[in-house]
Design a protein that fits this description.
Layout: E1 2-10, E2 21-28, H1 43-50, H2 66-73, H3 77-91, E3 100-104, E4 110-116, H4 120-139, H5 145-159, H6 163-174, E5 179-181, E6 187-190, E7 197-200, E8 203-204, H7 209-215, H8 218-227, E9 235-238, H9 241-251, E10 255-259, E11 269-272, H10 275-285, E12 292-296, E13 302-308, E14 311-318, H11 331-339, E15 344-345, E16 352-353, H12 359-367
Parallel strand pairs: 15-16
Antiparallel strand pairs: 1-2, 2-4, 3-4, 5-6, 6-7, 7-8, 9-12, 10-11, 10-12, 13-14
Helix pairs in contact: 3-4, 4-5
Length: 376
């Protein structure tokens, strides 16, 4: 057997109007297309021993033990995988996973295996594990069911909504209010279009607190923008040098490194073109955050935008600090001269900011073989 495709369905779909959370596996049975369960020696006995709780599945027979009767009489492997995937989730503690369908995909030996899930990653894993279990049953091999169930339970536990958000979602479902989970945390959208509202635990979109929290997490912001088909630089979050190296190998140089939850550009380094510079930038960023976001560098301008009452009001072009040489003054003297401008002040107290000499300044000068005493 071979899994050709796995899709996660959200909302009303081809298979059901009411069942909004379904996993759809496109399965190629290959040689098993010609071997229903009653033609595989010992299959019926092995599945009863390995998963005795499948006795609870009534299937089309309408009574307990109905699925086992189908296996004994002969059913196709896609149907078996559907029931195993559902049962694995049930054994892992999930209650809302009782819907399944298996239908031909229009090509010999290819089937759509569809089953309900509670959380996406645990549902995907259950589908893959179900295929592995079915293959083991066909070959008469052992399979560690307990390990698979534990993994599904752990994935589900890490993914599932917190108790407050879950209670709100549960009440929304009772009132036929559609909901959409927007991230891996507890951010949920209730309703669609102009009527939609967002909740996160006890917080709602009636205030700006959710938006503020999202904007403070760069990775979360990027994922939400991506889901809205707004282009963003490709990147990943890392917390150690090994992960940093693997991400860089995948996306390639030049890159940008910055703290995941930083602000004002603190700890950010752009246009990194080699590994030694990446290590230095990583160490600098970790002074501000344990988690670092690695992105593909895209050349462009830096703007700070002001939005008031959901309307764009103004934008400021942010330019890196610079001085222009006169052939007589040192770099330090040029910086001092620029800082005498009355429009410059500390942080945001005035229109322009005082140029500071720090470690980053010294690093940039060193790259050009300059010091503060160099005349330019």
């Amino acid at each position: 057997m071979q899994i050709r495709e796995i899709k996660v369905l959200r909302g009303p779909n081809f298979w059901s109007i009411k069942k909004h959370k379904l996993i759809q596996i496109l399965l190629d049975l290959q040689e098993l297309e010609f071997l229903p369960t009653n033609k595989i020696p010992g299959f019926y006995e092995r599945i009863q021993l390995l998963l005795p709780s499948l006795y609870e599945h009534e299937c089309s027979e309408g009574q307990q033990g109905g699925f086992f009767e189908r296996v004994k009489d002969g059913t196709w492997m896609g149907h078996v995988i559907e029931h195993i995937a559902l049962e694995l989730q049930s054994l892992a503690g999930m209650k809302n996973t009782g819907f399944g369908r298996t239908r031909g995909a229009g090509k010999e030996g290819w089937y759509y295996v569809v089953f309900s899930y509670e959380e996406e990653q645990s549902g995907r894993y259950a589908g893959k594990a179900a295929v592995g279990i079915a293959e083991a049953l066909v070959k008469g091999e052992d399979y560690d069911i307990e390990k698979a169930v534990d993994e599904i339970h752990n994935l589900w536990h890490n993914e599932k909504l917190g108790p407050t958000t879950y209670s709100i979602v549960e009440e929304a479902q009772k009132r036929n209010i559609p909901y959409l989970r927007l991230d891996e945390g507890s951010l949920v959208q209730l309703g669609y279009g102009c009527k939609q509202k967002r909740v996160e635990a006890a917080l709602t979109s009636c205030t700006n607190i959710i938006a503020t929290d999202i904007a403070g997490d760069k990775d979360r912001t990027k994922k939400l923008l991506t889901s809205a088909n707004i282009p963003v630089p490709f990147g990943e979050v890392v917390s150690d040098v090994e992960n940093l190296k693997s991400v860089i190998e995948f996306i390639g140089f030049p890159i940008v490194l910055k703290p995941l939850n930083g602000n004002h550009g603190k700890g950010a380094t752009i246009n990194i073109t080699n590994w030694p510079c990446a290590i230095t930038a990583f160490q600098r960023a970790q002074k501000h955050s344990q988690k670092i976001i690695v992105e593909k560098y895209i050349r462009g301008c830096d703007f700070r935008v002001l939005v008031v009452n959901n309307k764009f009001v103004a934008a400021a072009l942010r330019k890196p600090a610079s001085v222009i040489g006169d052939g007589r003054s040192t770099i330090q003297e040029l910086i001092d001269a620029v800082n005498k401008d009355s429009r410059r002040g500390h942080c945001h107290e005035k229109v322009l900011t005082t140029i500071k000499v720090d470690d980053v300044t010294m690093e940039l000068l060193a790259k050009e073989n300059y010091t503060l005493d160099t005349v330019i």
